[in-house]
Amino acid sequence: MITLTRKIELVPIGDTKEERAVTWKKVAHFSRTCCEMANKIVARHYLTFCEGLELSDGSPKSFTSKELREYIKAKHDSSVQNLGYAITKSYKEVPSYVRAALSNQVFSLFKQDIFDVQIGKRAMRTYKPNSPMPTMKSSLIFKKDNGQVFLTWCKMDFVLAFGRDKSDNRTIVDRILAKEYQLCDSSIQYNRERNKIFLLLSYKQPIAQQKLDEKLCVGVDLGLNAPAYCALSEGEGRERIGDRETLLKPRINIQARRRNLQRQLKFIEGGKGRKKKLEALNKLRQKEKNAVRTINHRISKSVIDFALKHKAGVIKLEDLSGIARDEKSKWVLRNWSYYELQQLISYKAQKVGIAVKYIKAAYTSQTCPVCGNVSREQRQTQAVFQCVNVACADVGKEKNADYVGALNIARSEQYVQRTKKKQKKQADKKA
Questions:
Q1: Three-class SS of residue 186?
Q2: Which of 145, 174, 334, 418 has the most crowded Cβ, counting Cβ within 10 A?
Q3: Any idea which residues carry the catalytic annotation?
Q4: Which residues pair with residue 183 across a beta bridge?
Q5: Share of the chain above pLDDT 90, in %
Q6: Helix (H, G, I), strand (E, B) or coil at 339
Q7: Are residues 70 and 177 located together in one domain of the fold?
Q8: Is 314 left (phi over 0), alpha (psi -120 to 50) or beta?
Q9: What is the enclosing helix (H) or strand (E) of 424?
Q10: pTM here?
Q11: Of 202, 228, 248, which residue constitutes the final position of a domain?
């Protein structure tokens, strides 16, 4: 089973405009209240964690360590998780199933973040009024009538607006109602800027059964000139997906429009307010994000199609975390959404039963796939690879550099273990 989430718009139901307005105000109030509760819960957990560190040597440790749990039990007469729920009890206007789900979600995210906060890798998570309101699945009551799907939540009634339904959300909801898919705890989101309400519907879907070769791997080399280059670990299968113009042109054009608009806004006068003047600028920013995500969706789908075509059971991606962030790399990192592309490949691969592994990215494009010789001199140009090892059977032969990188990734066995335990051990050694 794989857990997925779909975003569906909710439209309040009411006989009069006033009744619908009451629903809007109630959802907006819940959204602001949940934001306030979430930030208080985070602060409470962080302060309690700092108190617990004072009892030890202050070295990085888990928030749920035995020592800290015993300390909280003795001082607050509560479990670690219930510290957050105790704060929500003063907000009785919000149903208990929303408060409990919120407390659980904030606590779970806090446990993930606290180690990175300790080592200075990230700041403490904060919540905004637009943040989704988690709710238990038992509070979501669906009903289908005359082809429409209705939802009752917190004694409020909504109709699900599927629109053009490019993501086939209607079929997904029908399968949930038919018990083919399993409903999970979901969220309700109120978007103040767009003045809309959304259901973030989470569900479990069976993984498609495919006859795949678990020993056959697809290496994916990501870049700007070739957004994704795929190669098989065995055989001659290869495919270049996309090109530089397809990847960068829409983004650069929108950025140019934004810069021109920014220059014009300097000379605009009037009393409409800052928010009104920047509205067009914000729309272009969102348009750029949408364009990039659409391109990444197409690339990721092509990668999965390539793997399924050759019955490959594993996709290997480069671990690009921590790549150079100097002045020369700023433009590349600004226009290359590699992380989003990797996430899309991962979740789409999981849907069809393909495993995804991350390997070390170092020297993949400077290593000869025949003899294993590593040298910068072998990378003649950005696009051409030529082995310089005289003992190699392919010495002097020109090859596509992206293909060489993808082939080395496919054949590599040096997997990167993305776990907190490994980060913790490294931090302990440095200390």
A1: strand
A2: 174
A3: 221, 318, 402
A4: 203
A5: 20
A6: helix
A7: yes
A8: beta
A9: helix 420-430
A10: 0.73
A11: 202
Tokens 């659980």 belong to: 104
Amino acid in the structure at residue 245: E
Mean predicted confidence (pLDDT) in 335-339: 79
Structure tokens at 232: 């098989």
What would the two tokens of residue 99 be?
Answer: 């408060």
For tokens 């035995």, the residue is: 66
What range does the domain containing 381 cover? 213-430
Of 88, 90, 89, which Cα lies nearest the Cα of 105? 88
How far is 172 from 280, CA to CA, in rounded Å? Answer: 35
The rounded Cα 179 to chain-centroid distance in angstroms is: 27
Write down the pLDDT at residue 431.
47
* Amino acid letter, 84: G
Tokens of 255: 């950025």
Mean pLDDT across the stretch 155-166? 88
State residue 322 phi and psi, 5-degree precision: 80, 20
C-alpha span between 200 and 198 (Å, rounded): 6
Place of tokens 């429009």: 257
Beta bridge partners of 202: 5
Q: Can you point out the beta strands (E) in 361-403?
A: 384-386, 398-400
Give the pLDDT confidence score for residue 134 in this predicted structure.
Answer: 92
Q: What is the CATH number of the domain that holds 309?
A: 3.30.420.140
Tokens 């348009």 identify what position? Answer: 287
